[in-house]
Amino acid sequence: MYSRKLPYLLLLPSALFLCVFFLYPFVLVAWQAFVTDTGELTSEYFMEMATHWKFNTALINTLLLALAVVPFQIVLALYMATLVNGMKRGRDLILYIWTIPLGISDLAAGIIWLAIFEQTGFLNSFMQSLGFIEEPIGFLGYQNKGTIFVAIMLAEIWRATAIVLVILVAGMGLIPKEYYEAAEVFGASRWKQFTRITLPMLKPSLQTAMILRVILAFEVFAVVVALGGTNLPVLMGEIYTWQYDLRDSSVAAAYALVVLAISIGFTLLIMWGLRTPKGARV
Amino acid sequence: MSHKTQVNGTVNGQSTWHRYLFTGSVIMLCLWVLVPIYLLLVNTFSAPEAVSAFPKKAFPDINTESVEFFIKYSGVAQALWSSIKVATVTMILSISLGAPAGYALSRFDFTGKETFRVLVLMTRAFPLPLLALPLAVMYIKVGLDDSVLGLALVHTMLALPFAVLITYSLFSGIPIELEEAAWTLGCNRLQAFVKVIFPLVLPGIAASAIFAFVISWNEVFAAAVLTIEHRTLPAFLLQGLGNAPLHLKFAGGAVLVLPALLFIFLVRKYLFSMWGIANR
Description:
The complex is a heterodimer of chains A (282) and B (280). By secondary structure, chain A is mainly alpha-helical. Helices cover 74% and strands 0% of the residues of chain A. Chain A contains 13 helices and no strands. Chain A has helices at 2-34, 44-51, 53-85, 91-98, 106-117, 122-129, 145-172, 177-185, 190-201, 203-218, 222-228, 235-245, 249-273. In chain A, α1 packs across α13 (249-273). The model of chain A has no long low-confidence stretch (mean pLDDT 88). Chain B is mainly α. Chain B has 2 domains: 4-65, no CATH class; 68-278, MetI-like (MetI-like fold), CATH 1.10.3720.10. Chain B is globular. Residues 1-12 of chain B have low confidence and may be disordered. Classes of the chains: A mainly alpha (282), B mainly alpha (280). Chains A and B meet through α1, α3, α4, α5 and α6 of A and α1, α2, α5, α6 and α7 of B.
């Protein structure tokens, strides 16, 4: 029948596209990492990756960055979302300003924070004008790994908190206002309303936001290149080096599987940690 | 609007001290977002010598030399053009693939609907830029390496889930009764869609198209892996990070940021409905 087939016809193009450009390539990348050119199964590429001196550093840096950035972003976005909801006038304007970084790429964010942290940059100029320092400090020099890390952290928090904010504000809009009215009647404080109503009701949105952010945090790349060059290796940077500079797509594929594995691992962990019982959904 | 009651509760009837804290936080957070962008613009509109001078001034003597230098720099015009081409193809592909799927999801109940929805949502748990690696190999075999279309296909993969979910929510927002009315008045399904539904969803479709454009415009990793001659602007800038002079980096950053800001401004109304639905 005409109408029976229609939905499938409409879905077909995008379903095919997802198979060819999403499912198939992920099979292909595993193939690349485990199978040699002559078709033999091998762990040689993984050994090459794991024994490379940069691998451990890159893995640890990536995980540390995600750990330093994501929880902070969730808390900051929660705070911003409550501020926005407590606003009588100018709500739209403030939301617009706070979501500006949504349109800014990680590379651009890196360049923006480079303007602040580079040796002749604004932070040094500011500190000098206040008399804290006489000579500009090389924040991003290879001997200052700590400040490079902090600069990347700030740039990431600056850029990607907006996406969490948008998800949380949309989620807060779905919480029925009657709950707050009831809480008010029983004399619950603001804080109690926040911890007993907002947070539990926001679980699905928090889950979405955290999964999205953690995945993006593991993909961190251009910010790191812009601010740290090669001084602070991360996984995506190593993938780029192996693929593009060293022309070894097998080892790059092995790295890709590591990123994929930690991404899926953390997604499952977050889904389990923030699961909502079936009956408790709005 | 469920937050309305809260709105009155939170600010009214609280101490002045609370209100100062509230206003103070809002202003501080606005500055936190805006000041770094301002500083980039200061650097962009300073003369090349001023960009690497120390100490920096907070208010520049407006000078477009850096920008002019950047625009004329070899490879920039070509990279800009590549970026626009890739983003446009991405925009067209993701809407023409995504919108029919969004319509099907919102209007029909059929076997496999849930499977498709899960497949779309699943893409979010995967680091999609990694797709560039296997595709690089595949592209060499089929002759799509270093091509506009090849990169646009990867960017479409990034934008398609959004396009499906956004159009799904757009179509769901239009009562099916409107379509049914058109059918009873003698329209067939296609006519009803073109004459009744399409004009209503057009602004939303345009917004998701712009969103797809921005996704492609900003993407760095896949662009850097997949292109050599046809570098897009982000890929071009990334390569120059190591050795390009400072004023070139900042002017490039500004050229990358400004169109994206304009686009986000245009779609600001839709951002929340987009993410509202992307939650479910």
